[in-house]
Specification:
The protein has nine helices and 15 strands. It is of the alpha+beta class. Helix 1 runs parallel beside helix 5 (175-203).
């Protein structure tokens, strides 16, 4: 086997500490330069989320089971290889052989392939990253190549890349929270600076001026992705329901769904009846909003609707698993209900008719990632996913769709 050396080494361009600190410095600088007009139109939480969303910090997931490969004849350079007779004048020597080209899709931040983790397997893996695909080639001389040898080499190469992915993901764990903490502190400090300046101006009798057209935050792009723009309407704040309220609602749904999985209360229930069971639990635990179902919201009736005082609404849809197309239509339905304020939503899926629950789990993420309005995935616990999507009528506005999958399968007698 022959490896062609190049500059396309994975995990080789920049060290983890240098890369991570550059993001911290850049994020802090972005927060420190926020104009007063931005604070007038957006909550501090919204500003923090906006800045952090500018950095693609999703861990790498190599989808090796979906790889494609091709093999072609080629000439293999064996110059300097002692197993072959070399030319007296040191001219290049090549022999007949094969080139195997492998392409593997992946999810996560492509930029992480450039970063050297704090712990690394030094194998100098050559590969080219194009979009969300990784491509590499291996060459083999014809004289000593078998299908088994090629397979072993490919498996070893993929295992080597996967090992370094594990290392970089380990370094990445918790880093987004660190960035968010730095940005939160810097945004709060900047807000204090602006308030202090206003106080000084007031003391000096300098008239305060407010801009009628607040400037949006500068978009930070480590890799190409969509950023949620900040609101520029002072009479319509850019905030949605708070993250705390969002997680409280999700925890209630999570507890109710887990209970339905372990008892017989959900037997023989249809989509609407399962929804009603969730509404009972939500009504008992949510005090800050009026929980309702089958309520008109923008373009239709939502399964679950919880309005809040800031006029934002938590909207959720409940669906039985009836195949990928049915769930895809449910996503369209959910996104179509949302107003510009409704940026935190949920899709609850119940499996009642399929014995192979693992097969359904493996399909959920693919349904979302293949959609044109998909932006990115936020890692969650097993059986749950959170996807960032764009609104159907506003590509500049992003929403979070938290997906929960519950197994209430009924064994057929």
């Amino acid at each position: 086997m022959h490896y062609g050396r190049s500059k396309n080494y994975l995990f080789y361009a920049i060290g983890w500490h240098e890369w991570s600190e550059s993001i911290i410095v850049d994020a802090r600088q972005k927060a420190s330069n926020i104009e007063k007009s931005v604070f007038e139109a957006n909550s501090q939480e919204r500003i923090v989320d906006h800045i952090v969303s500018g950095y693609n910090l999703a861990p790498l997931v190599l989808l090796a089971d979906n790889k494609t490969q091709d093999i072609v004849e080629t000439k293999v350079d064996v110059t300097g290889n002692n197993m072959y007779v070399q030319a007296f004048d040191n001219s290049p020597i090549s022999v007949p052989g094969y080139k195997v080209v492998i392409t593997i899709p992946f999810t996560g931040s492509a930029d992480l392939f450039k970063v050297t983790p704090t712990r690394i397997r030094m194998t100098y893996d050559d590969a080219v990253i194009t979009g969300n695909e990784l491509t590499f080639a291996l060459e083999f001389t014809e004289s000593n190549t078998t299908a088994e040898r090629i397979k072993d080499a490919l498996d070893g190469k993929i295992a080597s890349i996967q090992q370094n992915i594990d290392y970089i993901n380990s370094d990445l764990s918790g880093f987004e929270e660190r960035v968010k903490g730095v940005v939160t502190e810097a945004v709060a400090k900047r807000f204090e600076q602006i308030n202090k300046l206003d106080s000084i101006k007031t003391a000096l009798n300098i008239p305060l001026e407010k801009s009628n057209n607040p400037s949006p935050l500068s978009q930070v792009r480590i890799s190409v992705q969509k950023l949620t723009p900040l609101s520029t309407k002072k009479d319509e704040p850019g905030g949605t329901i708070s993250s705390k309220d969002y997680e409280t609602i999700l925890e209630t749904i999570r507890s109710m769904g887990a209970s339905m999985e372990t008892n017989r209360a959900s037997e023989s229930k249809d989509e609407e009846a399962l929804r009603d069971m969730l509404l009972v639990g939500l009504s008992a635990s949510i005090k800050s909003g009026a929980v309702g179902g089958e309520l008109f919201h923008k373009s239709g009736k939502t399964d679950i609707s919880i309005p809040f005082n800031n006029k934002a609404t938590f909207v959720a849809e409940c669906k039985l698993w009836k195949g990928q197309k049915y769930i895809d239509r449910g996503i369209d339905q959910l996104l179509g209900y949302l107003t510009w304020r409704d940026a935190k939503t949920a899709l609850v899926i119940f499996n009642k008719d399929n014995a192979n629950f693992s097969d359904i789990q493996s399909k959920v993420e693919l349904i979302f990632t293949e959609r044109s309005d998909y932006v990115r995935t936020i890692k969650q616990r097993d059986g749950e996913w959170r996807f960032v999507m764009t609104k159907p009528d506003d590509n500049g506005r992003q929403v979070e769709v938290h997906v929960m999958l519950f197994d209430v399968y009924e064994t057929k007698s």
